[in-house]
Inverse folding.
C-alpha cells in the first residue's frame, strides 16, 4: 500500500522520486489521505480542524492563518468556516475532509470514495 501502512512484500514504488521502501517518512510528508469515512471531531469547527491538522503536518505557525483560509476557500466552505463539523451535511463533510487532506502542501492525495454523497 502506497500509504505506508504495510511493508511491500516485493517491489517498490516512488512518490515524487521518494521510495516507499527506503524513504517512507519522506513519502508521508508529500501525501495526503482522504479516507472513506470522515475523520472529524463533531464539536470542532471547520477552521479549528484545519488549524489542528495543519499543525500536525508541520505548517509553520506564521503561515497557519493563510493556509487555513486558503484550503477552506479551495473546497468552497468559506461561509461554513465557523460551523461545527457535526452540523455539516454529508457533502460538506466530504469537502471538509478533502481540505484536511490537502493541508501541509500535499503533492499527492489518495481519495477513498471522494464522491460518495
Amino acid at each position: 500500500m502506497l500509504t505506508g501502512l504495510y511493508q511491500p512484500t516485493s517491489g517498490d514504488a516512488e512518490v515524487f522520486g521518494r521510495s516507499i521502501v527506503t524513504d517512507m517518512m519522506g513519502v508521508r510528508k508529500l501525501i495526503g489521505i482522504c479516507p472513506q469515512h470522515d475523520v472529524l471531531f463533531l464539536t470542532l469547527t471547520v477552521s479549528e480542524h484545519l488549524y489542528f491538522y495543519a499543525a500536525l503536518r508541520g505548517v509553520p505557525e506564521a503561515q497557519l492563518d493563510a493556509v487555513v483560509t486558503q484550503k477552506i476557500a479551495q473546497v468552497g466552505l468559506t461561509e461554513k468556516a465557523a460551523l461545527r463539523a457535526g452540523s455539516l451535511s454529508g457533502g460538506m463533510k466530504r469537502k471538509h475532509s478533502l481540505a484536511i487532506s490537502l493541508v501541509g502542501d500535499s503533492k499527492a492525495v489518495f481519495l477513498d470514495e471522494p464522491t460518495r454523497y
In short: The two ends are 25 Å apart (CA to CA).
